[in-house]
Amino acid sequence: MTGKAQPQKLKKRIFRSYLTSTISISMVLFLIGLLGVVLLNAERLAKYVRENIGVTLILKDDIQESDVTALQTALKATEFVKSVEYVDKETAAERLKKDLGEDFTGFLGYNPLFASIDVKLNAAFTNPENLSLLEKKFMEFQQVKEVTFQRDMVSIINENVKKIGLILIFFSGLLLFIFSALINNTIRISIYSQRFIINTMLMVGATDSFIRAPFVKRSIWYGIIGAMAANALLLILMLSYASELTGIMNMDDFKIFGVVFVADLLIGVLISWGSTYLAVNKFIRLKFDELFY
Q: Regarding the domain delimited by 54-149, which CATH topology (the fold level of the hierarchy) does it fall under?
């Protein structure tokens, strides 16, 4: 093998090593970014779940259309109601027919259902205590015959929302530690492949800072490239599923994604810089004989 071929082969090996590191950093930062989006949207997700807890106001049988309109207007004016939907007797019957798979009105000879108003509440008023108070408020309306909602389901949802929040925080910290360790190990392996170059530089009298500088600069650049690639993948993923995430994640709220993108970039740069700094220092301190182990 000629003298020119050896440096060329070494350059290719170093390039492949850094390329592998960059791809690994990108994948890890993509997962960190995805986790960050989920974590920052956890409160919004909890709000979305709570605001889909339905309360049904069953109306009196002899209620007039004007009374229904007045009730809807009154409900919309309150601070605790997010939305209302009027369901007349015929619509209620059609929905029940669809659920049962048969025409129960033909069997009974009449429609036994009452007209109702489905109420969606603002998230702050969906805990069991507030719902009990709201039930009494709803019953004060003359048009209302009965108020129904799934009490057990409300309690379960509120308990699970709290548990999920704590679990997300715990796993976010754990995964961030694991991902940081993965990036660190990837960079250490990359530097390991160049340990003899570091030793050669030491032999010709190069200082520690002079040796570290090119490795650190290159690693920071690869960290930036990895973070940008991860952010691009994350943005593509979010935009691709924008319609499916409506109500759970607000795609117009770029502040959240801006925070995640900046955090991803900083994490990529800091971990790349720190890991490279420590790895190069390790090989600077090694004796020549120790480079083979």
A: Alpha-Beta Plaits (3.30.70)
